[in-house]
Amino acid sequence: MKWEEIYDRSRMVVDKAMGHLLAEVKDVEEDKDGIVEKLLDAEYVSEKLEKRKYYSGKDAFLRMKRQVERKKRVRMIMWVASAACVAIVCIILLQWKQVEVLLPGTNMIAKQENILPAEMKAILVRADGEQVVLGKGHCSLEEAGNVLIAADSTGLEYNRLKRTMPDTTVFNQLIVPRGGLYLLVLSDGTRVWMNSDSHLKYPIMFAGDKREVILSGEAYFDVVKDESAPFIVKTESGKIEVLGTEFNIKCYSDESALVTTLVNGKVKFDDGMNPSVILKPEEQLIFEKENCQSIVRKINVNHYIGWKDNRLSFQGERLDMIMKTLSRWYNVEVVFEDSTLKALEFSGNLDKFTNIQEFLSLFELGVNVKFEIKDRTVYIRKGN
Predict the structure, then answer these.
(1) Is the pLDDT of residue 136 over 70?
(2) Which residues form the FecR protein domain (predicted)?
(3) If we measure between CA atoms, which residue out of 295, 301, 299 comes closest to residue 246?
């Protein structure tokens, strides 16, 4: 709707409203200042609205105080008229907004399907089977071995209150569901960022000559160095051993490969059959589960660890693999109506994104692909 049309419609509605208003106040004493006639004059009202830009609240208050007794009735009429005008303008703007929503090309899907990215949430499964839902709220728990657990919106942290002989058989498990992510600080100070749809089993307190955890899914580890106790991450495809370093492991059971990305330090991968593979910083190991082969390549690590900072990045990656990531991150299902679209490759980097539609709209630019979201399911088909 153009501004000229809004002005004309507003003028007509205000004239009509003023007619009803005057009919109700016709018994009021003679208008001393002719305010009623002025309110009926559209040009006068327009001029006053323009002068409203230079309105001084302090000056107006002093004038009102001097005239409060003299213009009680007139002010009452003005107040009613102003309230009516405000209501009319609000109605017009609301109708305008409704028309805007229905205009072709507006993003109705994003407004109806407000599908937001992963948030801080997880489920702690304690050794006795008790399940504790973790999220924005704060909670404190005590574990065996005089270990205190503190959890809030920033994550879950284990603190050993004093040195005791720990029971290494006491394991907890942290489950991060689809649409979630979480930060875990282990008893040795190692920080673990866990991605959506991931599980980590770990002792509440490390003991002995090794620190061992079991991972399914994806996690980023910032390991505290301890040469007397190597840190070991076990997966269904093999184990990764480190002394002190930062690295990412992606080992989802429904994907064909385990991927380890080294940020700094040194890690060693052992699948139990082939010779061990040692990675250097900014190298990535891809272990193909079907043929048990390892591939090492030089990469830009930022494309593979950005998820822990609420950023997704892809570099020449197939659409079917991208959609697997998005399905976990946003907790949605994905349906390819045309299987040939799975092989499309995309590169991109989106920071601080919100709704999934903002991400998918980037894929549609210049490519013959169309995304439709319905009931938390993304349907992928060829564009028109």
Answers:
(1) yes
(2) 183-268
(3) 301
